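dude i think i finally got it to work??
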Amino acid sequence: MALDPELVRRLLRAKDRLDAASHEPWTVRRLARVSGVSEAHFARCFREAFGVPPHRYLLTRRIERAAALLRDTERTVTEVAFEAGWSSLGTFSRTFRDVTGESPAAFRARVCAAPSDLSRVPGCYLAAAFRPALTMAVSEKRRRETDATNVAHLTEEPCPRVSE
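look at this
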């Protein structure tokens, strides 16, 4: 089903707000108000228009911002977490590690250790190169990894019983 162009324009208004202020607390209710539609309609249509749910899009923008701050500034990981929009350092660190595969400190050490001249690369290319691939929800990814670990433990040879 094709979306109405007027609705897409309103969804783009909400998406632009997310891009401009990803550090702010954005709820579906607030985004729906920006778009002038109901919450359920907004969530459905946003996913249909942009391929990801609003929360996952926001998470992607926050991770991108945090990666840029870690790469380009000397701010502490805690400062980066709060500036990128997280209210908890633990949640930021866990989510960053789940999405990028490394902790914020390890990410900074790796990108800062590699000699490169990124000053001549356009910002839009850098953003695309460092954009996290969130094809599934972080909680779903975490659940699948836990399930895989549990299955591996179940298929291992059990310890022999000691007779008493």
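The two ends are 69 Å apart (CA to CA).
im so relieved honestly
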